[in-house]
Design goal:
Chain lengths: 438, 438
């Protein structure tokens, strides 16, 4: 294959991921040229502080603080946005598209919150956006949904999309540590930020779910409409009861589409999965997405969902796609965040059926189980298993944990029942609940 | 998006997979048109016996026995080859390419044996070949390797690529059945052919490995150069010993590339995997491919590797790719089976290091273990575990099974040692061995 003109790249941001992209581009030029049919040339690296030491050996003459120069440089074909955040990054991406540059981004918050605007701008300017790195790090999840499974109606997605949470939950499950101690381990090993809020409260996973829902179901989900719970409140006791019942707790981003009524249910929540379910076996900082399509059946994609080189792998795959001209075709073929008539509507969360795990602290006296069972029955919630161990001696006095697994019930119905249970005098502390996968 | 001209398709063959492709095309025209940007129109269905009843409701006026009419019809853009076999199919694909048609094929034997010829013909005629369905059924494995991981040097592939074998081994492992009985179950449930030879002897998995090796490492492996063992000889005793040692036996297609010396090792063989290794957890007729890339690290792709609709899902994904124009770009960007200088060479199988499982039937008398251990030590083969249970009372007299796990040793060295052990008078039957994953 004879090589066409160079494909000229500007890197906007050169932190962890940006340095990884620079490393791939600078260390493997022949490999990338043979796969793209042309040379991928790193032309400029825009940074805030050029004096900051960088992992990759970026030639100093490429480094600049002048973002505008990228906009003005007609040679530059594509810009890689890896600054993160949603304010400056949004403006920068809109300016790049207006200046005639294609854009590759790893910024899930940007796409989840401003995807409609950004994709409309790309279409208006005849540009393309590559965003494989925004979900699942190096795992080609976006390509699987948009290309590999293009013949399918996707019926459901279930993902472990936040490596920090999965690392913490793996520690709590396998080493029996508390949440606080597992979080400290994750921070020490670089799997969690100093302020881990956006990871552990489910925001990051919900950003990714918003992107996947758009791709898989063609629905622009307002980010605030995704119910989400994080993992910070998970007690070691619940991990242990889950194990006793044959389950493992994972933070899942889930979406289910019902082709009969065109409605989509979705949430981010800790979910109890059966021990041998494929997603239950995903350990440490790995990510995985379980996808069911109407033709293909069940499929799963697994790998590192974050980190320098895995994310850079996805960014550079997008660059190769655009250098070949394939990325532009893919972007045009997707009606992403467009204003086309939506045929999919969101299902009110309260109507979504689920099984539930319920842990109550109750007084250790006759009649308590009967009363609780009566209230559940009254609300048509059927019990699948019960665990009651012997009384806990301690400051709480004669109090015992009572653990119940339910059969399926509408979420709203369950939550109303839970409120009623918490109001009972025999229930001595707010009850704990989690979703249970079928 | 306004729709471009129809994309006109001929189906060559209408058995299980062909009927599935027809179903998707005929039952979901709007879905496919919205994803391809144009209507995918089924124009002709070439069959040998038009009277044969078919699952899909193919309009009778499309059915023909006249393959030449497809070649002559200038409207037809692409032909889907799903007849299977390598003689007629090879001729048909070459004729289709010469007639100016792109080709989508699910035929792994054709590509493994005649890939060089077929791909060269496509390039000569300026046509493209889509072959996602040839490996891993509906799992987008080919796209992951050629596009999603394009920034990587692939370092290793390990796949469960034959659903029949995996179904049989799952039955033997989980239900404790014999090989013969598990095979009969597979045949009764439609997971194995009446003549299962090409599945159970590893030929089918080796065909797929040849295709993957070409894509991942750019090396055209002569099919006969792939060492392969099947599963028909696997004894229930070895399944049980594997479990006792913490392992599960799977038929794997494996390839390892050493970037330092440019050499590739590959084989198809039953391999003992640790119980919780990702591939050990792949059950029944599912397939999975574990891929390690130098940037992305470990990734895994999982789903149904065969069957009507999963395979049709991959075929129609290729049709959408070609209708968009993306498939042509992908095909051109791959130097598949081309005569470019090969930089990768095959490693002689005898030099490939592996751990081994060894089961000997030995006389139950003093000094036997010492003699065997001495011979292994003499050949520099280090023992990692030993199991020797009590003597078997029975027709064999005082004979005991002796099970040994070794540390890594060159395969040729191990096989030579095995021959020496089998020649000992205290070894009463030919010894059994399997590879053990690290």
């Amino acid at each position: 294959m004879s090589l066409a003109a160079d494909y000229n790249i500007a890197l906007v941001g050169c932190g962890t991921v940006g340095s990884g992209v620079a490393r791939l581009l600078l260390e493997h030029p022949e490999r990338l040229a043979s796969r793209a049919g042309r040379r991928l040339r790193l032309c400029r690296v825009v940074v805030r502080d050029p004096a900051k030491p960088r992992a990759a050996a970026v030639p100093p003459e490429l480094v600049t603080t002048d973002f505008e120069a990228v906009l003005r440089d007609p040679r530059i074909d594509v810009a890689v946005e890896v600054v993160g955040g949603t304010d400056w990054a949004r403006r920068a991406v809109l300016d790049l598209l207006a200046a005639g540059k294609d854009v590759v981004t790893a910024n899930k918050a940007l796409l989840a919150l401003h995807g409609a605007e950004v994709f409309a701008a790309a279409r208006r300017h005849g540009r393309a956006i590559g965003f494989e790195a925004s979900v699942g790090g190096g795992i080609p999840i976006i390509a699987a949904l948009t290309q590999g499974l293009a013949a399918n109606q996707i019926l459901s997605l279930q993902g472990i999309l936040n490596g920090t949470c999965n690392f913490i939950l793996t520690g709590m499950t396998e080493r029996g540590t508390s949440y606080a101690s597992a979080l400290a381990d994750a921070q020490r090993l670089g799997y969690a930020e100093a302020d881990p809020t956006l990871d552990v409260d489910g925001t990051d996973a919900a950003h990714k779910l918003a992107i996947l829902a758009q791709i898989a179901f063609g629905v622009a989900v307002p980010f605030a409409a995704i119910p989400r719970r994080g993992i910070a409140q998970i007690d070691q006791a619940d991990i242990r009861y889950a194990r006793e019942l044959g389950y493992t707790i994972k933070l899942l981003a889930e979406a289910w589409y019902d082709p009969n009524d065109g409605r989509l249910a979705l949430h981010v929540a800790p979910v109890m999965l059966r021990h041998l379910a494929p997603l239950a076996l995903v350990r440490d900082a790995y990510n995985a997405l379980f996808v069911v399509g109407d033709a293909v059946g069940s499929t799963l994609y697994y790998g590192r969902g974050a980190g320098q080189m895995p994310t850079a792998s996805a960014v550079v795959a997008d660059l190769i796609d655009l250098a070949i001209g394939r990325g532009q075709l893919t972007f045009r073929s997707l009606e992403l965040w467009s204003d086309q008539a939506q045929t999919v509507s969101l299902r009110p969360p309260g109507t979504v059926p689920s099984r539930f795990y319920l842990r109550l602290l109750v007084e250790d006296r006759p009649g308590v189980l009967a009363e609780i069972a009566r209230i559940l029955a009254h609300h048509q919630i059927s019990i699948s298993s019960v665990i009651q161990h012997e009384a806990v001696d301690g400051p709480d006095g004669d109090v015992v944990p009572l653990v119940i697994l339910t059969h399926q019930a509408p979420t709203g119905n369950f939550l109303a029942t839970l409120a009623e249970l918490n109001g009972l005098s025999c229930v001595t502390a707010p009850s704990v609940y989690y979703h249970v996968a079928d």
